[in-house]
Amino acid sequence: MDDKTPPHENEAVRPFDADPTRLSTDLVRIEDVTKSFGSKTAVKGVSFSVPAGQICGLLGPNGAGKTTLFRLLMGILKATHGRILIDSLDAFDDRVEVKRLIGFLPDEPVFYSYLSGREILELSAAMHGLDVPDTLQRMDPLLHQLRLGVDIYDYAEDYSRGMKKKLGLLLAMLHEPKLLVLDEPTNGLDVESTHLFYNLISETAAAGTTVLFSTHLMDHVTRLCSHAVIINEGSLVANGSLADLRSEFSEVSLEEIFLKLTARPPQK
Amino acid sequence: MKKQPTFWRTLRLLLGAARKRSTGRQTRQQELLSNRSGKNATDWGGIGFVLAALLMVALNVAAAFVLRTAITSAQRVEAERHGKIVVSRTFLDSMAWYARPGNLSNYDPFSKEANDIARDYGGSKPAIEHGLREAERTRGSEAFVASQDAAPGLSALATSGPFVPMIGSLVLLWWLAMLVFQGEGLELDLQRRRHPMWEWLFSHPAPPDAIFLAEMLSPIAANPIYWGAPLFVVMIYSFAYNVALGLLAGVLLGVPITIAAACLGKACEIAVTFRFAPRSRVP
Question: Which residues on chain A place their C-beta less than 8 Å from a C-beta of chain B?
């Protein structure tokens, strides 16, 4: 794919609008967030926002703090300093309410081994306070779109990594959240599954859902995202629309920008 | 339509899921057994579950009898440590009868008692008989104590020497450790051992305290051995006092101890997950 072309080839995804007057429509606002574990600081004073209805890619090398940031977003961890607002609700203080708004796909989805995929969907729907039969009926087309129609009756113990990711995505979308948080959603997936995933993410974003996802695949960010955030060693190093990043760093491709910003000296 | 998942609804859902997982594990074991044997293993279904639950009840009742036997054995040992020989009440009565002037008979209580002791506790009958006669000759009836007086059982635990409560405590600890480390069942749920479920569970808009409590109580929902555990306490208090007090103790002590054991087991599982997980977890 030519990186000089506009980043939004997918017409379904609305382009990022950097206009400051749109600040009030930010669905996610991360304000000077720091998270320390003992003497180690995993996230250092990170601030950025994600406007509603956009697809935002969170990039960073291994150990940059992406997963910690997602756990903070989900209210699983409490920030040492700063705050995270999701639709004006505090991610930690209002964490029960916030979870109505967020669908989360963890890096390594883990399910109860001896529940079938369908039983896990039923449990999750009930825990969201949804009508279980109606929800399963609504999810049925998605289930088939992700080719889980038959395997959904098997125990999660028997699922491959890709199947677990697909089930995880279904669970994240079960309650029709305003925000989808996906931690390396295509990590370990085959080409076909990756394609299915990104099609689904594009369709979901086109329907108005905001998507924040982490990945190591630059071409996916270039193809899908309107907005990118790059963190390195816990600190934010770049944030903005893809076009803004290109012009700011005078680089043609996102990969070059990423390498420039996250370069580390070789270990002795 | 969305309904707020309440504390009790969340607890009920997650404990129900724990029960389903337990059934799932059993089904998978059944499949593995069938694959290994090359024929369909007998599926006992509901009857199998009831039998397993009854077996667990029997195990807890048996543990109560083990405790009682350990206490009485320790009391006998304690009496013997004080220089007494533990004998039957019949032996003591016979000795008293023979001691009266004019009472003569061919019946030899020493031989009969030595025979009984050798049968119940082992040892050489002639050596035991010699010891009994020697003790009677040198110290008279002062050398002996009736078994009922030496080992009155659990009701006299408070007045027994330090050795008896120590042995009783060891058996209690054995029972508690057995209960704590039962977890949700014998089959290891490897995924859960490697990654706790909290991240996924906490991604739901359910009360975190209900999720936490359900996780802690999941061994009780999944493993029937916990269901019979209060019976252990019922039996112990029934041995020491009476059945009514035993039942009361079962409710007031047995149920909380069972819950505490399940929680302690889960806490150990969490500690293992944190300390031994292959993923690096920063404290």
Answer: 37-38, 40, 42, 71, 74-76, 95-100, 102-104, 106, 108-116, 119, 123-124, 126-131, 155-157, 171-172, 175
